[in-house]
Write a structure and sequence with these properties.
The structure is a single chain. The protein is of the alpha+beta class. The chain has five helices and 17 strands. A hairpin with a 4-residue loop joins strand 3 (62-66) and strand 4. Helix 1 packs antiparallel against helix 5. The protein starts with a helix and ends with a helix.
Length: 276
Amino acid sequence: MKYFRQWFFLQLLCFLIGSLVDSFSLSSATSPLSVTFKVGNQAVLPCSWKQRLGEEAPSTCYIQWNSPADTIFELQGEKKWQAEEFQGRVEVPEEKLKSGDCSLVISDVQIGDTGRYESFMLVDGARSTKTKVFIQSVKLSVSDYKSILFRGPGEDLVLDLYTQHSGKVVFQDRNSSEWSVVWMRGEEDSERMEQDVANERLTIKNLKSSDEGMYKVMDEQGLAVSTVLLSVIEGSKAVKLAQTMEHQVPTGGAVRGSCSALLLLSVLITEMLHLF
């Protein structure tokens, strides 16, 4: 048990330091058009064509959003085009477009959507002439989720999958550096694994000490949607640790989030000093 506690706290130390690095790096961004969203949520990339074209709307509003590699979205009147990887997920609300708002809305945003996006208005309304007016550049960052959980033997672990693009859950136990697949989307429920499709959750039932370790929810591109560090502990110690430390470890840029991670880190160091 002593060696597991040492392993767990060392893993937790790395986990929190990684969260702090993410938090400070994101908070250092000063550009007003750098936006950050959590995976699975709706992202809005702000845009207003009035700052480039003036107050009067073009006779035909023709908006185009591009990434450095390709065109993402086009809208001209009733004609609409979306890139394959964004099918059904991107939109510029037409009711707002004529009033100047050309913001791109990305539903169910994914880690792989991170990057720079640029918007253009084609003022002559003819794509073949490619007469573009640059409107806006937006840097989008999509962050994952991190959490530290404490459970007792026999309890259940509920893992949020966050998005329908989450394809599998992998696990690394305390005695191994290897990752094993514990769940794949499309598999039937088993005695210990049950998926709630409507709420995008996975329940691992009747936890044992061998379930201690790190769980990662991975998307279709192999990117981590969330990371959960789990400890299965008996007695009042588990309750005390859970009350002190168990919550979402923030990865956003807020100063409050950084302070929360620092508080967790200080608790961890105190526990490690007591342990050793």
